[in-house]
Amino acid sequence: MNGPNSVSLTRFLIEEQRAKGKIGADLRLLIEVVARACKTISIAVGKGALGGVLGEAGTGNVQGEAQKKLDVLSNDILLEANEWGGHLAGLASEEMDHPHAIPHHFPKGGYLLVFDPLDGSSNIDVNVSIGTIFSVLRCPEGMTGTEDEAFQQPGTTQVAAGYCVYGPSTTLVLTVGDGTHAFTLDREVGSFLLTGKNLQIPPDTKEFAINMSNARFWEAPVKRYIDELVAGKEGPRGKDFNMRWVGSMVADVHRIVTRGGVFMYPIDAKTMDKGGRLRLLYEANPMSFIVEQAGGAATTGRQRIVEVKPSKLHQRVPVILGSRNEVERVTGYHREG
Ligand code: AHM
Ligand code: MG
Known about the structure:
With 337 residues, the protein is of the alpha+beta class. It has eight helices and 17 strands. Bound molecules: 2,5-anhydro-1,6-di-O-phosphono-D-mannitol and magnesium ion (MG).
């Protein structure tokens, strides 16, 4: 892959800026800085037990979840990398109650960055793929970027979104609203190289991802849909389906972006009072943008995810995304009730 004709992330972004006018210099800088932070996180993750970074941090986040050392470290890496560049008005993350203000001695810019620094916390200590998810918004007029409300924008306003999966290879998947593209980290050279241009999620699939242990809590439309898949060839779908559940949204979505499938974390009796399991602003919205730009679909079961108007920074939402025809089918079951 690496050679005279390889396209680095930098070159890709400059060409998007030059040829298509899709992005400006500030957004290009922002994405490059996030990518650089992901490289640093990738190195920390890769050291595993040797780096002394595994285990609990001994703290909790705003959502009452125990933080791992790597959750905290990844959050700090992203904050430090992004606060000095002059491209951001503010940053928010899963690991912080409220947005992080840009220190006064640094210039401020017009963008907001919101992220899940290390998604898949339960997989950190067991050497299973984990990742970073991020979304870029514009800071609304009249706001400073330190208010929760500044970030509470529907996903349709995202100007860029991406994730970086730390698996057997480190892969950054990105959209700036002009398709979804994948870049693999060349560890020797230290740069991300374009390895997948204009990824396309097949509209049909034989693979689904859901935490089956929640089956008894599901709503009727989800139960109906999954029962049909599990019934296989002998059931109403007339074909066998296969199930995969990594337990890291990044890894499950990356599989779907690569070869299709449907990913579901629906609302259920256990998460009803919270509105769902996954977070809207830094999990569901960026993943929905990426999936839609790759020809897939993403809904709550009742509404396109990116059209949900957030009322809280850490709002949760039901998630059904991936191969278009499957997402439409399960959304149809919700409509029928
Ligand atoms: P996290 O952000 O605390 O890691 O939680 C989000 C993760 C997702 O990556 C994954 O899809 C889901 O939680 C797994 O949930 P479960 O443990 O119920 O299978
Ligand atoms: Mg997460």
